[in-house]
Amino acid sequence: MLSKPHRLRTSNEYDKVYKHSRRINTPYFRIYFRDHVKVSPSEGILALPRFGIVASKKVGNAVARNRGKRLIREVIKSFLPDLEQNFEAVIVLFNTASEATIDQLRDAFAASVAHRIKGQAPAGNQVQSD
Hints:
The chain is of the alpha+beta class. It has helices at 11-19, 62-79, 102-118; strands spanning 22-25, 29-35, 50-54, 87-93, 128-129. The N and C termini lie far apart (29 Å).
């Protein structure tokens, strides 16, 4: 499980990300990035990257949904030390995510983060921006 500072918790937080974000599609999930999250001036530091994961019943039964969420959480944890600060993201899983390997999800996540940062996908990856 992601630690509390790295999670989106309320529906209001999810709604803000959906409304004020940029979408990036991969074969396994769609990721909504919201950059430059406002931090209160009293804190004086950048906000940590925060994530929300959504797996609807279209993904499959409870076992498939939980497996997909568990895999994507592990991928996020492996990238956390290298991610820049001050953004929020919601990851909406597709039905292909529950059958994907951790390496496939890691590659798709890396491509989407690279696309977000540089504005272009690395060669050979199937990332689509809307």
